Amino acid sequence: MFTVNKFQRISCKHVELAIALLIVLFSVTIFCGCKTKSRTVYIIDDFYSDEEKSHGEIVKDIVCCGVSRSKYLVQCFNIDLGERDSVVQLNETLKKILETTDADSLINMSFGQKDCNKETYMLIEMLQEKRVVIVAAAGNDGENRCDFPAGYSLNNIFAVGAVKTNGQIAEYSNCGDDVDVYVCVADDNESLGGTSEACARMTNMLLLSDCEFSPQDIEGLIKKCGIRRIKNNGTYIYIRTEKDEK
Fold first, then answer.
1. N or C: which end of the chain has fewer CB within 10 A?
2. Neighbours of 32 (CB within 10 A)
3. Per-residue pLDDT tens for 90-126?
């Protein structure tokens, strides 16, 4: 007849406790993994150039500066901004993103197009429904309007203008009511310059703030970034200077 002694009963209890502990640890690991899932950042730009570095590569460097690669998955899409069919290329890219993206994603567009496009508008509107934020350059014509897609009146678009280090809106920067935020750009010729750089720097600040992307609360996102709001000749400018960053 088989009998179980006291030592064997204690050992069985220890095994059961060990198994239960492993199950708990495994569940916590899965839960934490879900909580820290990488968010996707898309950079749409011109990545091909005869120069040492393309416009898109410089933009990517600015966007990704200091950003944790474990928190954000960066995907780049090339469009030839010098071609007539650049709008077609943009729309095809937006369709690809729309098919694959999760909510709480961000798209950087450090460029602008002079004419609006109905299909582009509709695609960005659908991205808005998926809670995808778009950061777009206002344009470098010094006019009281925005290039597109920054000029579309949609809640998920940050239209980004440029301000000089002295706090004045740059002469080249488009401005007006459609511009959501102005970001400081160096007054030298060594950087990318223009609202393209301002746009990339805005995206970088959003990523470094590690805040939730919410198309319904652009003002709230700006505040979460810690960007100072100053009034200059009746215009509100949002700016983070080197002094602020230190």
1. N
2. 9
3. 999 999 999 998 778 999 999 999 999 999 999 999 9
Distance of CA 216 to the CA centre of its chain: 15
**Digit-coded pLDDT (tens) for 53-88:** 899 999 999 999 999 888 899 999 999 988 888 999
**Class of 37-245 in CATH:** alpha beta
With a CB cutoff of 8 Å and minimum separation 6, the contacts of 129 are none
Amino acid at 197: E
Could you give the angle at the alpha carbon of 93 between the alpha carbons of 143 and 36, nearest 5°?
A: 100
Q: Where are the domains of the chain?
A: 1-35, 37-245
The dihedral formed by the CA atoms of 232, 59, 78 and 52, expressed in degrees to the nearest 10: 130
pLDDT value for 93:
97
Q: Which of 170, 171, 169 is nearest to 236 (CA)?
A: 169
Backbone angles phi, psi at 223, to 5 degrees: -65, -40
Global pTM reads 0.78
Is there a contact between 42 and 108 (Cβ–Cβ < 8 Å)? yes
Paired residues of 45 in beta bridges: 78
Q: Are 48 and 78 in contact (CB under 8 A)?
A: yes
Q: How many CB atoms lie within 10 A of CB 145?
A: 17
Residues 6 or more apart whose CB falls under 8 angstroms from that of 147 comprise 111, 112, 113, 114, 137, 138, 139, 141, 174
Q: Are 162 and 182 in contact (CB under 8 A)?
A: yes
